[in-house]
Amino acid sequence: MSTEVPPSNKNQSLTDNIRLMGRLLGDTIREQEGQETFALIERIRKLSVAYHQRQNEQAGQELEAVLKSLSTAQAVQVLRAFSYFSHLINLAEDRYQISRREHYERLGQVQSGSLEASVAKLQAQGVTPAQIADLLAGSYVSPVLTAHPTEVQRAIILIAESAIARLLEARDQLPPGRERERNTRQLHARITQLWQTRIVRDARLSVTDEIINALAYYRSTFLHEIPQLYATLEELLPGKTIAPFFRMGHWMGGDRDGNPFVTAKSLEQALRMQCETALMHYLQELHALGTELSMSTLLVAVTPELAALADAAQVQNPHRQDEAYRRAIMGMYARTAALLLQRTRAQPPFPTSLQLEPYQHADELLRDLRTLETSLAQHHGAALADLRLGKLIRAVQVFGFHLATLDLRQNSDEHAHVVAELLRVARIEADYENLDEAARRQCLLAALSDVRPLTVPGATYSDKTRDELAVFHTAKAQVQIYGAQAIRHYVVSHTEDVSDLLEVLVLFKEAGLLQHFGTPDVVCPVVVSPLFETIGDLQRAEAMMREWFALSGIADMVRAGGACQDIMLGYSDSNKDGGVFTSNWTLYQAERALQSLFAELQQQHGIGMRLFHGRGGTVGRGGGPSYQAILAQPPGTVAGQLRLTEQGEVIASKYANPEIGRRNLEILVAATLEASLLPQPQPEAIFLQAAQEISDASYTAYRQLVYDTPGFSDYFFAATPLREISELHIGSRPASRKALHSIADLRAIPWSFSWSQSRVTLPGWAGFGSGLRQWLFVDARRQAANQPDPARLALLQRMVREWPFFAAMLSNLDMVLAKTDMSIAERYVDLVPDVALGQRIFGAIRTEWRSTQEMLALITGQTGHLADNPVLARSIAHRFPYIDLLNHMQIELMRRHRQSKAPPDEPEFAENASPDNLARLRRGIQISVNGIAAGLRNTG
Predict the structure, then answer these.
(1) In angstroms, how far is the first alpha carbon of the chain from the final one?
(2) Closest CA to 484 of 568, 336, 362, 641
(3) Of 28, 154, 232, 913, which one has the greatest count of Cβ atoms within 10 A?
């Protein structure tokens, strides 16, 4: 495939790599599928580029005719070509970002968002290294990987792409000649591998698959790069001890909300596989460490502790008797291997003949590693610790034997059903679910205060209750095996009132996770974390948490469990509920109210707050640049405490490449440091008042469009690939908690994902334009004359300059509007059976979109998009002509797929309804979903 890339000397290496990827992919297609298929793909590519760049109607009509003439088999080949090209462009852009960063580092220039830049900024403001280290000593920063119904990447594709990324990295160092030609052949071979590898799944992803996919990022990135992140901090803060504040989190295997396939067995399996991943890494590092620490006691002394550790290994090999470090490491390896076998039944990467007792706790391995470190330091070998030992020590400190904290999550309604059955069978309360809130609290607190369990021995319970109780009992057992950090948080979805949290405590008590409630000896290692999702729930969050801590025994329990209350904030559902501006503003207000409450609780009980941000990949789900998002949080709400979700394709785009992964990890830490230690002035009262008024107007406009416009839900289900997505083998979790009948029943994630696929990206901007216009133009006279109120316009422009929240909000709007394409979106209207309905609803959507475009331009003074983000603007220029083609193809295959479900007497039915053709149609649609998601670099 040839490519048309805008030339630029500054970006020449990127241009060259994109052209190289396109050429090698084209050569592969020609070799594998023949000249005719290659020529067809080239013709379609040229028509798509012409249509995109010049809006050439003739090219558009010709393109449509060509696409309709394709057989399903041909369509699938075209889709594969452009989907893989989207992936290859991503690799070229990733390599360019890394090389530019390396270039600036060689020049001594630090980039914003790096740890070096942030530490320098802090020190320039008078913050000392000791103050930074003190903050980190009490900090907790954790990205949490989550699986969702829109995950479209296959692990094997990620592995192949990693190989291509390494070849591109090596290529940068090769001069023209034989080695560069060999590199080109290797790239060609890897692209051939991709072409001959199935890009999409032929079976629905299982929970086990999701766990495996997530663990791949640990092996490629986290296990290596997180220790390096700590090493960077130690270099920037010499002489300061950096506490293990940065840890990873997981939902795969523990998130039961709406996913019937996550069970007690999944929980046990997830932690077992996590343990295996951590131990395998330690074993490989210990094996390599043995080759580094080869010092002889004939030449250098060791500490008595090291000598004792070496003797305890009982190594009989005569060639190792003077090599105390190697003997000690051999013993550590054998003990770790014994633990691997005991807990996972897996074999170590290298066999050992030593028969030693397994480690029981990570602290034991850490202690032995420290013994090595101390001996080296005391005998002129400190430099050797920097090679591998220091990073291994940090890895064991951070990952332990559990690898990552596995969150548990379930919907509050499910807890209520289980507790109601327990109370009914125990003859305590016959109809718990019909009690009012006050009576529920009274009943639950009584159950918590009673030392006896609710479960009646020998009684019969429903399958659902038995399954839920099994999860809690398994969690208790896993905490005993892997330690308190293995399962630290229990997230309660759909938290509406205090009883939703008390129900979980009752279930904790049944399993023994909560003991001695209401006494000074209370024990509860798992934090119950409410998830506030809807606009109404967020508005009531502060009042509910105040009532929660007013209950007798709660403050003592939280203090005993670490003195920090986790609170999760849902960006997705609040957006679906009230639109992007109202969602973000309500979240901001909820955070401010919660911060004020916990300032009181800190004084009264010594209890702090940690916010857990449920952000998705798209702006409509709280996505956007992490650095900017963290700095835009209300003053005082970060304070060294941050958890946030990493979801969908964002995980691959951020962490598949180790160097880019480290950069993204650094961004989280750098932004946390700045948000916690730099002065943060409170927003002016007039800013807050304006935001509230704009939010009120935006909420009304959004609800009128999405929920009050007759036929809107019918349009959504017809004019997006939502129904096709629900049938595809994408994620383990269903796209909806109920049958797909209304927008209200739909999960927020596929809601956002579907709009993104159809290039409308409605959740990222809807409501803002109309709401802002109403506020800015004040009255009908100004609206008729198209004259904004000058004082209000000046206020908005000052808000952009002086208020990080508002600036980030508009920046994200700018980004999402740049990715929106209404000419592509309009083509999906043809899929709506009711032509008049399709045109009417799309007209309303386009009117709102134009209003948002106009309002954004009015405030910023910029008619185009991404003026302040040339990197993203360049990326869009490179990839959008090819993403457009994927959209055109998706529409055509969706049309055929839906016709296959038409009445059998219609002519299209026979053409599309054969089993083989249906399978190809579904595969083609899935490939288009994959390619568009890869091209846009985000899903739901």
Answers:
(1) 30
(2) 362
(3) 28
SS3 label, residue 208: helix
The dihedral through the CA atoms of 75, 81, 84, 90 has a sign that is negative
Amino acid at 215: L
- In the chain, the amino acid numbered 613 is H
Tokens of 899: 């016709």
For CA atoms 458, 462, 465, 466, the dihedral sign is positive
Q: What is the 3-state secondary structure (H, E, C) of 793-843?
A: HHHHHHHHHHCHHHHHHHHHHHHHHHHCCHHHHHHHHHHCCCHHHHHHHHH
Q: For residue 669, what are the contacts with CB-CB under 8 A and spacing of at least 6?
A: 115, 118, 141, 229, 233, 246
> What pTM did the predictor assign?
0.91
Contact 95, 169 (CB under 8 A): yes
Instruction: Dump pLDDT digits (tens) for 182-214.
Output: 999 999 999 999 999 988 877 778 899 899 989
Q: What is the mean pLDDT of the chain?
A: 90
10 assigned to active site: no
CA–CA gap between residue 213 and residue 295 (Å, rounded): 40
- Cα gap 927→935, rounded to integer Å: 12
Clarify whether 576 is annotated catalytic.
Answer: yes
Contact 248, 405 (CB under 8 A): yes
Query: DSSP letter at 745?
Result: T
Of 616, 611, 615, 602, the C-alpha closest to 634 is: 611
The one-character DSSP state at 176 is T
Q: CA-to-CA distance for 939 and 721, rounded, in angstroms?
A: 13
Residue 572 has what pLDDT? 76
Annotate 412-443 with DSSP letters as a single string. Answer: HHHHHHHHHHHHHHTTS-TTGGGS-HHHHHHH
Q: Indicate the Cα dihedral angle 454, 455, 461, 462, nearest 10°.
A: 60
Closest CA to 761 of 834, 832, 695, 814: 814
State the catalytic residue, choosing from 417, 576, 865, 897.
Answer: 576
Looking at the chain, the number of H-run helices and the number of E-run strands are 41, 9
Question: Exposure pattern of 276-314 as b/e (b: 16+ CB <10 Å)?
Answer: bbbbbbbbbbbbebbeebebebeeeebbebbbebbeebe
User: What are the C-alpha distances in Å from 436 to residues 48, 146, 420?
Assistant: 60, 34, 13
For the residues 106-121, what does the mean pLDDT come to?
84
52, 148, 281, 819: which one is catalytic?
148
- CA-angle at 913, arms to 911 and 914, nearest 5°: 90
**pLDDT tens by residue, 714-748:** 999 999 998 887 776 555 555 555 555 678 777 77
**Strand, helix or coil at 154?**
coil
Q: Which helix (H) or strand (E) holds 565?
A: strand 564-570
Distance CA 596, CA 370 (A): 42
Residue with tokens 């909560």: 514
Give DSSP secondary structure letters for 694-722. Answer: HHHHHHHHHHHHHTSSTTHHHHHHHHSSH
